[in-house]
Amino acid sequence: MATLPSSLRRLRLLPNLEPARTWTEGSDVWIQKVSSAPATRLDVINLQEKLDQQLQHRQARETGICPIREELYAQA
């Protein structure tokens, strides 16, 4: 019995660890799957800036329990 290369095993394992998210916007159905490609430093910086902008725009509390912050973190 042949074993799979480690890269292929990782690709098959990812959907089990983080299943695809599905949602509907109007009449469109969206599916988001986890990627095996690593994020670049620029990707991380841009995402952090977008999160900071949303936190500020929605006036999320900086300390303590904050439903707005919880909602935004759940989207990541």
Question: How would you portray this structure in words?
Answer:
- This protein has a two-stranded antiparallel ribbon.
- The longest helix has 17 residues, at 41-57.
- The protein has 76 residues and is α+β, with helices and mostly antiparallel strands.
- It has three helices and two strands; from the N terminus they run H-E-E-H-H.
- Helix content is 50%, strand content 13%.
Quick rundown:
The protein is an alpha+beta fold and 76 residues long. The chain contains 3 helices and 2 strands; from the N terminus they run H-E-E-H-H. It starts with 5 loop residues before the first helix and ends with a helix.
Question: Any chance you could write out the topology, listing elements then pairs?
Answer:
Elements: H1 6-17, E1 21-25, E2 28-32, H2 41-57, H3 67-75
Antiparallel strand pairs: 1-2
Mean pLDDT: 87
Shape: extended
How would a crystallographer describe the biggest sheet?
2 strands, antiparallel
Q: Tell me the β content.
A: 5-15%
| Helix proportion range | 40-55%
Question: Secondary-structure element order, as H and E?
Answer: HEEHH
Structural class: alpha+beta
End-to-end CA span: 39 Å
The strand order across the widest sheet is 1-2
Rounded to an integer in angstroms, the radius of gyration calculated over CA atoms is: 17 Å
**Low-confidence residue ranges:** none
Annotation, overall tally of beta strands: 2
